[in-house]
Amino acid sequence: xxxxxxxxxxxxxxxxxxxxxxxxxxxxxxxxxxxxxxxxxxxxxxxxxxxxxxxxxxxxxxxxxxxxxxxxxxxxxxxxxxxxxxxxxxxxxxxxxxxxxxxxxxxxxxxxxxxxxxxxxxxxxxxxxxxxxxxxxxxxxxxxxxxxxxxxxxxxxxxxxxxxxxxxxxxxxxxxxxxxxxxxxxxxxxxxxxxxxxxxxxxxxxxxxxxxxxxxxxxx
Amino acid sequence: xxxxxxxxxxxxxxxxxxxxxxxxxxxxxxxxxxxxxxxxxxxxxxxxxxxxxxxxxxxxxxxxxxxxxxxxxxxxxxxxxxxxxxxxxxxxxxxxxxxxxxxxxxxx
Amino acid sequence: xxxxxxxxxxxxxxxxxxxxxxxxxxxxxxxxxxxxxxxxxxxxxxxxxxxxxxxxxxxxxxxxxxxxxxxxxxxxxxxxxxxxxxxxxxx
Lengths: 220, 108, 91
Hints:
The complex is a heterotrimer.
Chain A: H1 28-44, H2 50-62, H3 65-77, H4 79-87, H5 89-97, E1 105-110, E2 115-120, H6 129-132, H7 137-140, H8 142-147, H9 152-158, E3 168-173, E4 178-183, H10 195-199, H11 204-208
Helix pairs in contact in A: 3-4, 3-5, 4-5
Chain B: H1 25-37, H2 47-55, H3 59-64, H4 67-81, H5 87-103
Helix pairs in contact in B: 1-4, 2-4
Chain C: E1 9-12, E2 31-41, H1 44-47, E3 57-65, H2 66-70, E4 78-84, E5 88-90
């Protein structure tokens, strides 16, 4: 028998005040007990320890898009590093951030005023988590996974990004265990900014390719 | 016909829901368990197996479950499939935890 | 042994089948150009069933004209997909 049968679905809870949606799903509190039960069972078998689980949750908290942003800001200011990032992003990340991306490969894709890459995983939700943190809910959602690959311009418009007709839009479907990081274009008017100031302009969405990097304040 | 997970190009005119989702503890726990079980040191579950199980969810669940609800269901199915724990054991522990929490009033 | 090189034209096998595969249905039967050879990796279609996934299989970054994939209804210009060698044939 499989757990994926009815028993777990029949708990009598009072009506959930939060209507289920794709980001939340049905019956939230049942799932807390199921996750805790799984952990207890695995601890009882000696396969994991509560400390290991805590450490992993801390690791989740520590991985944020600020890591990826450092790579981008360095690439914007150092052409040699940029070349290395585009040739072998995994070793570039290891060198600059001191972390192992923990994936077979990390691949950086350069956006220019002529070519715009946007990343999707149509089959599941592959994402460069080690340097961007957990993916946003929309990246894992069915609408983005269905639509981005066929109508990226419409999807990007929903994110507030209107691309000129002459820009070549390349949608990258992350179907294997390669992980893709978009190197967004450096915004105009940032020539005097420090690497740290530049990193603050690099948003998560710009590294997925659904947005540009932020414009510096004061530039119109 | 593509599997339920094979979404590229599916007719879908719904807008992208861009609201940010604050992770719940059980979601982080589920995530942590999977990453531990699939770590090179433990090597108990492969991410490919997780994907296979998620893809085998019946279409209704696939469509309505949240991301980590799919994950947790898939991990449960995998540890059962591998004979690590039984479905009954997981059910019993979950029921006990639920009974405990029913006795404890929720924090204000 | 890597069968294809950068610049080679390849056709994705049109072999929809049940079970865990990493080739999306929409790309099956389409012709694209290898633009990067990633390296060789264990076969996920076997790893998914608890097997070892060896020998490792070359993995390619293949670029497709969006019109080839979607027949002109797409607002993309190019669709790039990672594909394992056993899914590809010369075109």
